[in-house]
Amino acid sequence: MGEDRGTAPRVLGRVVDDMTRCEHYRGETDIVALKFACCGEYYPCYRCHEEAADHPLARWREQDRQQSAVLCGACRSELSIDEYLRAGACPRCAALFNPNCRLHHDIYFDFPAEAS
After folding, report:
1. 99 burial class (0-12, 13-18, 19+ CB within 10 angstroms)?
2. pTM of the model
3. Are 44 and 13 in contact (CB under 8 A)?
């Protein structure tokens, strides 16, 4: 199933399974964890970050688009922000991502969402 889960980054917050689903978002396609620009830690969602981190959230900037900051919970591959924003599924394992995550773009990213 992709990379060895023992070498994958840790995911903090209220994680409920090994595919990075959390107490807040645990649908079939909720399998993405995001690294936060403020702390460099992965969380399943902004709500998990708000609950667990001792600092305010910072958003990724346009110039950070090549930064590895997205973790596919299915294969544990790290994706660049740009790869993630251009995909509806993991480019490594083809696992589908929740399309409704796009509704939260402004929470994670400090640049406009591209029209789909």
Report:
1. exposed
2. 0.91
3. yes
